[in-house]
Amino acid sequence: MEKTKKTSRRWKTALIVLTCVLVLLAGALAFAGNYLFHFALDPEFGGMVGSYEEGDWVLEGDSAWFSENSEDRWLTSHDGLKLHGLYLAQPQQSHKYAVICHGYGSIPQMGGRFAARFYEMGYNILAPAARAHELSEGRYVGMGWPERRDIVAWVDTLVDQDSDAEIVLFGVSMGGATVMMTAGEADLSPSVKCVIEDCGYTSVWDEFAGQLQEMFGLPTFPVLDAASLVTQIRAGYGFKEASAVEQLKKNVRPMLFIHGEEDTFVPYSMLDVVYSACAGPDKERLSVPGAGHGEASWKDPELYWSTVGAFLDKYMG
């Protein structure tokens, strides 16, 4: 009997210890997931993306030109956020529009070099500020997923003002992922004639998995799973759900994919994945030797813009 009692006490003790360990592990995992969520997606946290304050950015060259000559536009998103964008019209009437989507942690003005090129080619320019960037409302960064619905809405505003509008979607990095995700939306206006993405990622999960290893040396499981769950609860989307690859399988428009061959932030290998996933009737790709992340347009501007120009000539009339 005494032996049985001792065995029972040992089991109870072991169960208590195991329970404590599991609680501690769950707490540590919850802390890690919450920390990574705020670090990557909360502008107020001061991690990878900071809050916007006017004057924080030094605007020079094309960025200053774009900022000085554009006007503010805004709309209310489907979930009640006031989203801003910069609009620059041609001096003479043009039915061509370029919607330019900026990268993570950036602002529309910093896409001035792209705006200037499209403007020279006769395009009116609309450069939306993504959620939680610049003047646009939003508590957390959407990494392109909720923004895909915002871009559909921005396109509708252009079509409302010009029923003859012909629109190209263009984006770099997070902006590239945004336009790829937008391309898969069934209600995207047929006025969008083609899409150009530069160094966008395959999915938020894939991108953060790489950065988790690179920056923290942490495994994907279970840390990224925890961060994705926190994001689902707080921001309304999960990392695997936010997939450019899955959206591209539903694309029906011509697309041009661009990537720098030396890109390690959004790995160059992702170019093959998104290109292969694209179900559009016509697709092209451009690899730029020696270019790191977001560097393709200035590493070899002649190759870059001649390719973009030829693509636009085919599909924008």
Fold and architecture overview:
With 317 residues, the chain is an alpha/beta fold. Helices cover 45% and strands 16% of the residues. It contains eleven helices and eight strands. It has an eight-stranded mixed sheet, sandwiched between helices. The radius of gyration is 23 Å and the shape is globular. The termini are far apart. 43% of the residues are buried.
Note the main attributes of this structure.
317 residues; alpha/beta; 8-stranded mixed sheet; 11 helices; 45% helix; 16% strand; globular
Give the helices and strands, then pairings.
Elements: H1 2-41, H2 61-69, E1 71-76, E2 82-88, E3 96-101, H3 112-120, E4 124-128, H4 145-161, E5 166-172, H5 174-183, E6 192-198, H6 204-216, H7 223-235, H8 244-248, E7 255-260, H9 270-277, E8 283-288, H10 296-299, H11 301-315
Parallel strand pairs: 3-4, 3-5, 5-6, 6-7, 7-8
Antiparallel strand pairs: 1-2, 2-4
Helix pairs in contact: 1-7, 2-3, 4-5
Order of helices and strands: HHEEEHEHEHEHHHEHEHH
Q: Counting H and I runs of at least 4 residues, what is the number of helices?
A: 11
Residue share in helix = 40-55%
Overall number of strands: 8
Whole-number radius of gyration? 23 Å
Strand content: 15-25%
- Major sheet: arrangement of strands: 1-2-4-3-5-6-7-8
The major pleated sheet works out as:
8 strands, mixed
SS-derived structural category? alpha/beta
Low-confidence segments = 17-26
What's the mean pLDDT score?
90
Q: How far from one another are the termini?
A: 92 Å
